[in-house]
Each structure stands twice: as structure tokens, then as C-alpha cells.
Task: structure prediction
Amino acid sequence: AGSKLREVFDKINNLLSGKPVQTEGQTVSVTQHPQGLEFVCYKLAEKFVRHGEGEVSFHHDSAFPIAVVLSGIWELHPRVGDIFLAHLHKKCPYSVPFYPARKEGTSMEEYQRMLGYEVHDSKVEEQDHFLKRMSGMIRLYAAIVQLRWPYGNRQGAHPHSLGYGWRWLAQMLNLEPLADVTAMLLLDFLEVCGNALMKQYGIQFWKIMFFIQKSYIPRIEAVTSSGQMGCLSRLKNFVQKCLQAEEIPLPKGILTPSFWRT
Result:
């Protein structure tokens, strides 16, 4: 509910503003320790990224309530946003977007970590689990760039606006595609952010969609084996439907004005 989200936002904002906050039966304040504020900013930013790789990866709709709270906090406390991006880029280099290359002397285990895989006791996580986590983080990022906290003063600019989403998409299409990963991330991003980009960039956006269909999808196909076609097929269908309809559907779970009255 909108009222519940406001409670969460107010509590986080109060904590970061140095006010005493009640939690788990005790009162805490960032002023209790000289590094209190820095610690809270760090842990809060880390928590938002964890929501992306956990909750959003399983429940796509949750990207929007999480993103709108982060967007509002970022506006009032820019340090949280900066640290959030640092955590996000480390956990999911594709959010830069960046495909790390393996350098001489880098062990395979270390390289897999650089690619975003979780490695425990030399065991690398399953590909499906890895893709799900990356998907959740990109969906959260795609929601952030288009949302603003509705109760802010709106005088300043959005701290990380849609222009960053447009830049991400353009940079992504300038990279050589990877099997599995590229098709999934493009589909996730377009499903969440495509409607907002269409409204903002109009004909330029449709040129990009046409480029994806005619030039980029064949390049993804060239590096994709027959067993990895699932996500690529979904991307192809999505782009084709949007071009035929000349419309990008609103993402599922988008927060409507009526949500804020709940």
C-alpha cells in the first residue's frame, strides 16, 4: 500500500537525517557514532542491491516500490545513491554496462567473480540462478531511472534520470553480445523501461528498436547455441510485437496514482 511505503520512506529518511528511530524495541541514531552515517549509507545501499538480486528476481513487480523509495532517498541523500551504484556495478557489471575481460594472471575463480557469479568453496553458482540475480538487478535499475518519489519538492533534477537509461541501452548495443546474458538483460530492460523511453525519445527510440531487430538480434544469434535460445526467442517476440503495434506496453506492477491513495 502507498501509506505503508511512505512509512518505510519516512523511517529511512529520519535515520539518515540524524533523527532517533525506533527499531526492534530500541532507539537508534546515526549520531551515536562518528562513522554512524557513513556506515548506514553503506549498509542501506547494499541492502537495496540485495533486494534487486533477491526479491525483484523472483517477484518482478516489486522493482517499482523498491525503486521509488530508493529514488526519493537518493534525491535527499546523494551519498546513498553513489554507494548504491558502486555496489550495483560490482555485483552486476552489466549494469554499467561492461563485460569484464580475463586478464593474464587472473584465476578462473577470480574471473567468474568479476563476471558477477557467486563462488563458494570453488563451486560456481548454477547458470539459471546467476541469470535470475542479474535480471533482478537490471530490472531494479530500469525502474529507478524512470521513477521519482511523489512527495519530494520536485525543484531539482531526478538524481539518476531516464537519460541514464537511454545511455545504458545505447552502450549495451555497442558491445559485442554474450550468449544468454545479453538477450535476457535487453528484454528485462525494455519490458521495465521501454514504455518510458518511448514516451521520452519517440522516433529515436523506434530507430533503436528497429536496429535491435535487424542488426543486433542476428549478432546475438551468431553467439548463441541451440540450447540457449529461450531468452533470445522471447526478446525477438517482444521487439517484433512492439514494432508491429508501434507501442511498448506499460510494465506490470507500475505504480499508478491510485496506488498512493491506498
